[in-house]
Amino acid sequence: MVPFPAQGHLNQLLHLSRIILSYGFPVHYVCTSTHNRQAMVRVHGWDPVAVAAFHFHDCQVPPFSSPPPNPDAAIKFPSHLQPCFDACWHLRKPVAQLLRTLSSRARKVIIIHDSMMGSVVQDAGSIPNAESYGFHTVSAFTLFFYIWESMGKPQVNAEMPDVPSLEGCFTQDFLDFIAMQHKYLDVNAGSIYNTSKVIEGTYLDLLRENTKRKQHWALGPFNPLTVPEEDGCSGDRHHCLEWLDKQAANSVLYVSFGTTTTMGDEQIHELATGPFLRFWWPRGKLKKWTLN
After folding, report:
1. pLDDT, tens digit, for every residue of 243-285?
2. Is the pLDDT of residue 104 over 50?
3. pLDDT of 27 higher than 90
4. Active-site residues: which are they?
């Protein structure tokens, strides 16, 4: 497993690792020591350290700048993270060394890498008993929308919804980074998506028709809906879910701003001045705020 060093990406590959481990295969999770530590601490519903067949490999990268975020930037993408993304180049050598070591003692080595880590695993093609798969963390709709818009929005077999353009969503540096990483995806044996065909079958079919990748699998969603009792928990549903069950149908709207945008003080104020808000606090307490 070669994740992209951002929390949502780290977490998804950890949960895919959990599924693979359940079939008796050892899993090696390769990233920087800092991001491996973040993944272990923040993963929900699972203690990967307790699994004997799960191996973290801490890699070092040279120091890089960590500027503060700029909520007043013209483009709201968190460009302060770009130096961290660029530092991933330095993972290529340790990943290649690990692959050669594993391939010398295993019949076959499977590499599942985040789609934005293509350059890091490019040496997998030179290992005869290795096979690589690109892992896409975004929804099938989002991924197809990227492709569809770059093609000039041609007529497709399914009606595309009227959604805003991606123009102005990403910095040019990040767009160049994505383009460079995706150059290496054609050598993959297939693509894995963190989604379900039941939910996104239309867009998975469109991806299959409009990409060159050989095979496609929808294996998600990966985040656990329940926490097993063997993980040290009672197995009871979280009280956040219990609260949601009591709400009227179609009365709850979930909005995730993710890590691809930043908001200024004025925007945060406008968001907070809604008549009634419920916030899920990171420490597990549901808070109700009634604001004027």
Report:
1. 888 888 888 777 777 667 777 778 778 777 764 444 444 434 4
2. yes
3. yes
4. 9, 114
Integer CA distances (angstroms), 170 to 4, 93, 139, 182, in order: 17, 29, 17, 16
At residue 236, the pLDDT reads 64
Pairing of strands 286-290, 276-280: antiparallel
Q: Tell me the two tokens of residue 149.
A: 């818009």
Q: Please give the CATH number for the structural domain made up of 7-224.
A: 3.40.50.2000
Place of tokens 């977490």: 11
Q: If phi over 0 gives left and psi between -120 and 50 gives alpha, with beta otherwise, what is residue 153?
A: left
pTM of the model: 0.82
Residues near 27 by beta carbon (within 8 Å), at least 6 away in sequence: 1, 17, 20, 21, 53, 54, 55
For residues 135 and 220, what is the distance between their CA atoms, to the nearest angstrom? 11
All residues at 6 or more sequence positions from 155 whose CB lies less than 8 Å from its CB, including other chains: none
124-148 pLDDT, tens per residue? 999 999 999 999 998 999 899 988 8
Tokens linked to 12: 């998804």
Here the tokens at position 84 are 């961290």
Domains of the chain by residue range: 7-224, 231-290
Supply the DSSP symbol for 128. Answer: T
Average pLDDT, the chain: 84
Distance from first CA to last CA of the chain, Å, rounded?
A: 48
Amino acid (one-letter) located at 51: V
